[in-house]
Amino acid sequence: MNAFVLVMVPLLAGASIFLVRWFVSPYPIYMQIRRELDTLTDAKKEERTKAVQGCFERSAAILKKHGSVLLSFHALSRAEGHRLESNEEVAEVCDLIHAAGHDHPFQGISHGYVPEEDWLSFLKYVKHAPNINPEEGKDYIDAADRWRQDHGYPSPPDDTGYVSLVERTLLR
After folding, report:
1. Per residue in 160-170, pLDDT tens?
2. Which of 8, 108, 120, 162 has the smallest set of CB atoms within 10 Å of its CB?
C-alpha cells in the first residue's frame, strides 16, 4: 500500500497539473499570437502608407520640375507607380496628385480604355512592355487602346476627347 501511495500521489498531481494547463494555457497563447499579429498588421499598414506617400511625393516633385512638358501619367510612371501593391494604392496616389492641383493621371483613359480595377496591371504592362515609353510621349495612350481591345472592353464614347488634349499638350 505504501508503494501504491508513493506512485499514485505524484502521478495524480502531475495529471492534475497537466489537465489544468491543458484547459487554461491556450488563452494566453492566443492573446500573445493576437498581439504579434496586430503588431505585424499595423507595421504592414504603415509600410503601405509610406509607399503611397512616397510615390505621391516623387510624382509631385517630378510634375513640379517638369510640369509644362510632362503629363501626370508620365510622372506617376517615373515615380514607379507600378511598384505599388494594389489598385487601391494606385487610386490613392492618383487622388493625391489630383488634390495637389494636377490632372488625374488616368483622366481620359480610365473612362473607356482602362477601368480603375486594371490601373496597377496597366501600369506594369506599360512599364515592361517593349516599344512603349510610359515616361514621355503618347505611347501610353496607344497602349491604353490596345489594353481595351485585348481585354474586350467596349469602345469608349466619343466625348472622351482626351486623346486630342494629350496630343495638343505634347505638341507644345
Report:
1. 555 555 554 55
2. 8
Our measurement of the distance from residue 147's CA atom to the centroid of its chain's CA atoms, rounded to an integer in Å, reads 20
In the chain, the amino acid numbered 15 is A
Between CA 31 and CA 45 the distance in angstroms is 21
pLDDT (tens digit, 9 = 90+) per residue, 33-79?
888 888 888 889 999 999 999 999 999 999 888 867 778 888 898 89
Residue 131 CB partners (closer than 8 Å, separation 6+): 139
Residues 6+ apart with CB under 8 A from 13: none
Number of Cβ within 10 Å of residue 106's Cβ equals 26
Q: Which three cell numbers stand for residue 115?
A: 477601368
Render 44-81 in DSSP notation, one character per residue: HHHHHHHHHHHHHHHHHHHHHHHTTT--HHHHHHHTTG
Domain boundaries, the chain: 47-171
